[in-house]
Design a protein that fits this description.
The chain is mainly α. Helices cover 73% and strands 0% of the residues.
C-alpha cells in the first residue's frame, strides 16, 4: 500500500514539475514582443493623425506581426473586431446552410453571395490591420486587398438587395441598369481607393486624392441601398407590419453612423493621445459596421423565406447572370489591385534608389 502511495506521489510530483515548465514553453513559443514605438519612430505612411503611440516596429519577421495579434498596440481593437465578426458570419453561414440549399436552389445564391462577401471584406480588413505594418510595400498590398474586399462586399449587397428586398415598383424603374451599374461602381470603388492611396503616397495628401475614394463609395452606396430605402419608405407610408423592415432600418442607420466615424477622426481629434489604444473613430466604425452586417443578414434571411413568390416572379433565372457578373467584377477588381500594386512597387524601388 505504501509503495502504491509513493508511486502516486511521484507521478503527482512529475506532473507538477511539468506544469511548472508550461510558462517556459509558452515563452519559447511566444517570445516577448518588442515594445510599441511612438509616432516619430515609424515612416510617414504608417502615421495616423492624432494617434501618438502604440505603433509596431517595421521590417520585422512575418511571425512577429502574426504574434502581435496578442499584443497591445494601436491596431489591436481593429484586428479583433473584424476578426471576431468574420467568424460569427462564418458560423451564421453554416447555420443557414442547414435549412437552405445553396448549391441546388438558384434563388439562394444571392444569399450565399452576401454571406461570402461579408466574410471576405471582414477577413481582408483584419489582415490589413494585422500585417500592413511590416513595410511600406506590405502597407499598400494589404490595404489594396482591403479595398478589394470593400468592392466585393458592395456588389454582394447590390445583388442581395436587388434580388430579395426590392419592391415591384422600384424594380420596374431600375431593372435595366441596376446590376451592371452596381458592378461598374464596385470596380470603380476598388480602383479609386487604390489609386487615391497610391497618389497620396507620392505627394502630399490632397482633397482631390480623397475624392477618388469617397465619390465611388458614395455613388455605390446610394445605388446599392436604393431598394432598401424605397422599401422602408413604402412600408412607413402605408403602415405595413413587415417584420424584416425594422432590421433593414437598423442596418441602414448603423451603416450611416459607421460611415461618419470612418470619414472623421472622432473622438481622437478632440482627445489627442488619449485614444491611441482604444476609443478611436475607426474602432467605433468597425463595431458599428459589424452590428450593421448582422442586422443586414437577419433581414435578408427573412426576405429570402417570406418573399419567395415575389422574387421568383420578378427575377426568374436572373440569379445565374448575377453570379456570372459577380465573378467578372471581382476578377476585374483583383487585376486592378495587382496593377496598382505593381506601380507602387516600382515607385518605392525608385525612391530607394
Amino acid at each position: 500500500m505504501a509503495t502504491v502511495v509513493m508511486e502516486q506521489i511521484g507521478r503527482l510530483f512529475i506532473n507538477v514539475q511539468q506544469l511548472r515548465q508550461i510558462p517556459q514553453l509558452l515563452e519559447s513559443a511566444f517570445p516577448t514582443l518588442p515594445c510599441t514605438v511612438k509616432l516619430s519612430d515609424v515612416p510617414k505612411v504608417f502615421q495616423e493623425r492624432y494617434i501618438l503611440t502604440g505603433y509596431r516596429q517595421t521590417e520585422q519577421s512575418w511571425r512577429y506581426y502574426f504574434l502581435t495579434l496578442f499584443q497591445r498596440h494601436n491596431e489591436t481593437i481593429n484586428v479583433w473586431t473584424h476578426l471576431l465578426t468574420a467568424l460569427i458570419v462564418l458560423v451564421k453561414c453554416q447555420e443557414i446552410s442547414q435549412t437552405v440549399d445553396f448549391l441546388r436552389d438558384p434563388h439562394a445564391q444571392p444569399l450565399f453571395i452576401i454571406l461570402l462577401t461579408a466574410f471576405i471584406t471582414l477577413s481582408f480588413s483584419a489582415l490589413a490591420h494585422l500585417l500592413s505594418a511590416k513595410s511600406e510595400l506590405s502597407f499598400f498590398t494589404f490595404y489594396f486587398l482591403d479595398y478589394l474586399g470593400v468592392a466585393v462586399y458592395q456588389y454582394g449587397c447590390a445583388v442581395a438587395h436587388y434580388y430579395y428586398v426590392i419592391e415591384e415598383g422600384w424594380h420596374t424603374r431600375v431593372r435595366g441598369f441596376y446590376l451592371p451599374t452596381a458592378a461598374f461602381l464596385s470596380w470603380l470603388t476598388c480602383f479609386g481607393c487604390c489609386y487615391g492611396r497610391y497618389k497620396a503616397s507620392l505627394e502630399k495628401p490632397t482633397f482631390a486624392n480623397k475624392l477618388f475614394q469617397l465619390v465611388p463609395c458614395t455613388l455605390a452606396y446610394c445605388l446599392d441601398n436604393s431598394p432598401v430605402v424605397h422599401r422602408i419608405y413604402s412600408c412607413y407610408q402605408t403602415g405595413c407590419s413587415d417584420p424584416a423592415v425594422p432590421y433593414h432600418f437598423y442596418h441602414t442607420i448603423l451603416f450611416l453612423l459607421s460611415a461618419y466615424f470612418f470619414s472623421f477622426p472622432h473622438p481622437e481629434s478632440m482627445l489627442t493621445g488619449r485614444c491611441d489604444f482604444i476609443g478611436q473613430g475607426h474602432q467605433i466604425f468597425h463595431v458599428l459596421m459589424g452590428v450593421s452586417t448582422f442586422f443586414q443578414i437577419a433581414a435578408l434571411r427573412m426576405d429570402f423565406t417570406e418573399r419567395r413568390p415575389l422574387y421568383e416572379r420578378l427575377h426568374g433565372d436572373l440569379a445565374h447572370d448575377a453570379v456570372a457578373l459577380f465573378i467578372f467584377t471581382n476578377c476585374c477588381s483583383a487585376l486592378t489591385v495587382f496593377y496598382v500594386r505593381k506601380r507602387v512597387k516600382a515607385s518605392l524601388h525608385h525612391k530607394q534608389d
